[in-house]
Structures are given as C-alpha cells and as structure tokens.
Amino acid sequence: MRADAERLAGVLKAFADPARLRLLSLIQSAPEGEASVSDLTAPLGLSQPTVSHHLRILTGAGLLERERRGVWAYYRLVPSAISAIAESLTPPRKQPTKKVR
Known about the structure:
Residues 1-97 form the HTH arsR-type domain. The protein has helices spanning 2-15, 18-29, 37-44, 48-60, 79-89; strands spanning 34-36, 64-69, 72-77. A 3-stranded antiparallel beta sheet has the order 1-3-2. The chain is an alpha+beta fold. Helices cover 57% and strands 15% of the residues. The chain has one domain: Orthogonal Bundle (Arc Repressor Mutant, subunit A), CATH 1.10.10.10.
C-alpha cells in the first residue's frame, strides 16, 4: 500500500543518518537501556542542540520513546519499531513446495 510505503520511507530516512544510528546504538547499549541528551553529547562529539535535533527526528519516526523526568528527558528504543524495519527489509521465505504423489 502506498501509505505503508511512504511511512516506511520516512522511518528509513530517519534511520539512515550515521549520527542517528550511533545514537540508537548508544541508547541500546546504555546500562538501563535509556539515555538523556547529556549522556549522549560527549560520546558523539556533538553539541546538545544537534543531539536533541536527531533525537526529535528519531522520536517522530517512532524509533524512540521519550519520558520526561523533572528537567531531564530520557530516551529508549521502541523494539517493535526496530523489528518492523528488519522485517520489512527481509525477503519473505519461500514455502517449501509439496511433492504431489
């Protein structure tokens, strides 16, 4: 369906940026499986506004969840979104053909 293809294209566009891939990896490997902007700026070598911009795009694409705690926002991966990308890029398995006897 066209709408599904357009949604997937938007998600893949958000996913395709190298800095965003690194963000996803850093968040996934964080001890609690979540991180704040301040946890991510130094490892990426990017400014806080740049990291926030990338996180906003990933959240908008449905790849991250954001939870506000006081003045901090924490981000975590949405496993179902990551699985959906993998599934959409994996060719369907062929069903074994049945032999007719």
